[in-house]
Every structure is written in C-alpha cells, then in structure tokens.
Design goal:
By secondary structure, the protein is an all-alpha fold. Helices cover about 80% and strands about 0% of the residues.
Length: about 400
Amino acid sequence: MNSSTRSTARALATLYASTVMAGSWAMIVPAIPVLSTAFQISAGTAAQIITALSLGRFAGMPLSGVILDRLGTRASLIAGPLMACVAAVLAAITPWFSLLLVPVFSIGIADSIWVIAREVAGVDLVRSDQRGRVLSGFHGVNYLGLAFGPFIGGLLTESFGFRAVFLAYGVSAGISVVLGLTVENRHHLDHSAPSESNGKGWGVSAVVRRLSGLRDLFHQIQPDFRATYAVLVLATLTSFAHRVTTQSLIPVFASATLGMTPKDIGLLFTISGLSVFIMILPAGFVIDKVGRKWATVPSTGIPALAFLLIPFSTSFLQLAILLSFLGVANGLSLGSLATSTYDVVPASARGRLQAARRTIAELGGVGAPLLGGFLADSFNPGVPFLAYAPLLVLSAVLLAVLGRETLAR
C-alpha cells in the first residue's frame, strides 16, 4: 500500500467515524411517546419534533452548499457538529415543548451542513467508478448510528428520562468536531463563475435573482441529463418523506396501537438500521457494476409495498419484518441517489446542486410528519402510511421511465 492509498484510507476512516456519530441523533426517536406524556400533548404533536428536525435540514441545505463551496470541507465538518453539540445541550435543559423545537430545528441545520460535507469530501478522495461504494459506505455506516442509536435512546429514556438522549447526542457531536479538525480542506467554488453578490437581500428582485441563479446552476448540467436530475430530486423527496414518516409515526403507531415500550421501539429501529448496514456492500456493487437504476427504482418501490402493509401489522415480529424491508430500500436509495446526482452535475457547482436537490427533497421531510401527525390524530396512526404509498409508486415509475442510466460503461 503506497502513501497515497494510506492517506486516502485514513481520510475515509475519519469521515466514516464522523458519519457514525452523526447517526446517533436517532436516539431521540424512541423518546417521542414519552414526550407526549412529559409535556401533556397529543401523540401527533409529539411527532412534530421530527418536523422541527426536518425543517432545520430544509433551512440548512442552501447554507451547507455555500459554506462547502466557499469555505471548504473542513469548515463544514467542524461547523456542523459544533452547532449540533451546542443545540443538543440546550435541548436537554429546555422546560417547554414549544421551546424544545428551537434547538431541535438547529440540530437539523447542523445535520445538513454535516452530511453534504461528508459526501463531497468522500467523493473528492476516490475515482468516479468508486463513488457508489464510498457513498453507500457512508450511508450504511451512518445507519450504524441510526441502528444502535434508537436502542441506546430507548434504554436511556427508560432509565434516566428523555433529556438524557439529547446529552448523549451532544457528546457524539462533540467527538465529530475533533474529527473534523483532522480533515484536509478542499474548495469547489469556480471563481470564474458569475458572482452571486447581486442576490443579497430579501426583496422581490433579490428573490428573483436567486431563482435565476438556481436556473443558471441547473443549466450547467448537460441537457441530456437535466430530466434525470429532476427525477432524482423527486425520488429524494419521496425518500425523505417515507423515512421521516417512519421515524416520527412508527413510534406513535407501535405505542398507541401495539402497546410497545420505548425499548421495544428502539429495538425495531435497530433492526431496520442493521438491514441498511447489511446492504452496504451489495448496494455498492449494484450501483458501481450493474447500474444506478437497478438500485434507485427498487428503493422507492419496496417502501410503497411496506407502507401498504404497516397499518395491518399486529405484532412486533410483523412490524420488524416490514421495517427490515424499509431498511433494505434505504440501503439502496441513499447511495444510489447521491451517486447518480454526482454523475450528472459539474464539479464547479457540485456542492450547490447537491444542496439544491436535498433542499427541495427536505420539503418531503418537513411536510410528511406535519400531514402525518394530522392524519394520525384525526383518524389513526396507520392512515399516514396508506396516504403516502401512491407517491412512492409514482417516484418508482418516473425513475424507471424518465431517468437515464448514469453509470459510464
């Protein structure tokens, strides 16, 4: 192994370690039913903690692209977890639910900065024919945190209360700050590109100029791949929608309908997360060797079937099997959608176009738990899953019909 290979391996190991820490936010998930009791609010209202997180991610995506392209990967890998650490500590001491949503919103912003930086830093380290395996690795390792986080969160919630999970997440974020200090800094901004300084402010003309700037970014994509990019944005939106619906409403469904404890709910998400982790190598192989679409299309079709069946689950085993299938779908989607996007966007606008895709997709992350919470309170916790299934079917069909295969042969 030469020095360049060793350097790349060390850099990837650092990014993977930071990725595990990032996934530990999932410790919050099994605490959702406890929030309902602690703050004397409805189950649907308690689930809006995921809405606050998703809204923060939505707000943070444009910022993440700018920080990454202008200041570089190291700045993003430090700023993201540092902000998350401070916000987690504030969440742990907040006495009211409405106020608790503010630091959770900040955690969402921090996560956006963090995730884009990890992906772009990883892509910079490897060849194009290795992107699928590296990004699948990132998402799979992230799901180690998402897998064990809920189980640990369930134990902490039952033993010490829900505030302990925020403190534990703050520790994980603090560790990632130290890891970020060791990453080589890289910039992606093309200084020959038109300046965006004329888009400052929030007047109508400034907003129009910003939208025009986004259009100009979109036009940097080769014409043959613009429809593919648009479909990938929709697929990412539906992916975010089904993931946050699972994270916010499975705890409500499992607690209210099946009478499960926080520890049981945490174990469910651990099973789902391990399913994603198991998909790291198979998904990377499919994406890099077989074809991107062989991963993207099933990644939206499988959740549609699972969502149709979840409301009819009557036991821990049935729900665990369905969440395992969702885990397999997540394993296929996370790496493949990101890899396909990197295939079609130019390097000079990589951070901003990737951030734009995820910003639009976060609309699904914001809207899904809001509507889902309303449907759960108005009818029952199983209804949101039935409502979202057709959107997943639509996404799978468009990926199959309109999306182009982006794997270079």
